[in-house]
Specification:
169 residues, Rossmann fold, alpha/beta
Length: 169
């Protein structure tokens, strides 16, 4: 089983031209997941309920379309709805025994923190990030473990979900 810890695709959230799409972090996540799924006959799970404001497709729809264009059959792609941010995405996978997580470079330290004690495999995707997420993810590399140790994870997650349900990053 492959789990993608998704990053927001779409032009409005990106400063790079559309022609650079194949170099962006979310697309590289898809490429790595597709390669693993096709080579090992595995299913891909996309935990996302996010619909970015002003975009024509939901986050999950973009990932499905992209994975299909990379040769993954629709039957091997499952969407887990109602998930709006990284914490929820990781929580979806915590009960799995055998899992390969495809993770963006800047999410990796936070995801490893949340998955401590699990024997998951990790594949890191290096791609062009959304500038806003670079700042947020860089801060959260250090801040998230502190929030977690202080018992503030759920409050932080609740605030993110409230914002994401309105379509904002």
């Amino acid at each position: 089983m492959i789990g993608i810890v998704v990053k927001v695709p779409g032009c409005r959230a990106r400063i790079f031209p559309r022609k650079w799409e194949k170099f962006q972090n979310w697309y590289v996540l898809c490429k790595k997941a597709a390669r693993l799924a096709n080579e090992n006959n595995l299913s891909i799970f996309i935990p996302s309920g996010f619909a970015p404001l002003g975009e024509e497709e939901t986050e999950a729809q973009v990932y499905i379309r992209t994975l299909k264009s990379l040769g993954v059959s629709r039957e091997k792609i499952a969407v887990i709805g109602g998930v709006y941010e990284t914490i929820g995405q990781v929580e979806v996978f915590l009960n799995e025994k055998k899992l390969t997580l495809i993770v963006d470079t800047l999410q990796y330290p936070r995801v490893r923190w949340m998955c401590r004690g699990k024997k998951f495999k990790y594949v890191i995707a290096w791609g062009l990030p959304n500038l806003q997420e670079v700042i947020t993810d860089s801060i959260l590399i250090f801040l998230f473990p502190v929030l977690d140790l202080l018992g503030l994870r759920n409050g932080f997650k609740d605030r993110l979900i409230k914002r994401r349900k309105t379509g904002k990053l």
